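Protocol step 4 of 5: obtain the predicted structure for the target chain.
Materials: sequence only (see below). No template structures provided, no constraints applied. The aim of this step is simply to have a reference model before the mutagenesis design in step 5. Sequence pasted as it appears in the construct record:
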Amino acid sequence: MACHELAALRLGLMKLCGIDDPNEKEHELAELGDAVHEPGPIQSLCGPEDLTKLVSYYQASLVDLQQRVAQTAEDNPKLPYFQALILVTKKVEQELQVHINNLKQLYEDLDDIHHLIHEVYPSKKKD
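Step 4 output (structure tokens):
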């Protein structure tokens, strides 16, 4: 169940990070099975255009997961496992946000560094 969310997230990250590993891609696609062809957050998560969409698709997949777990019968012996999957996927969501925040900070730091370089070595204007 949640393996789909994690496999799809890995595929999405592979795309955005430029990771070209056919074996890993094949492994994750095998994990997803038919879910990769079903319209919805899992399918979208496999090939996002940017980080914002990756996060959005992942969050939507977690909502679907939570709904499926909520609909699981209380006497289902797999319920504790499914509930643990919710914890794992939420932790991954938090980690993903930390990394995105770090990238945003790097983006801002680069601007500060650029300005500092121009303070130390001012640009000479051409007349």
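Step 4 remarks: The radius of gyration is 20 Å. Residues 79-120 form the longest helix (42 residues).
Proceed to step 5.
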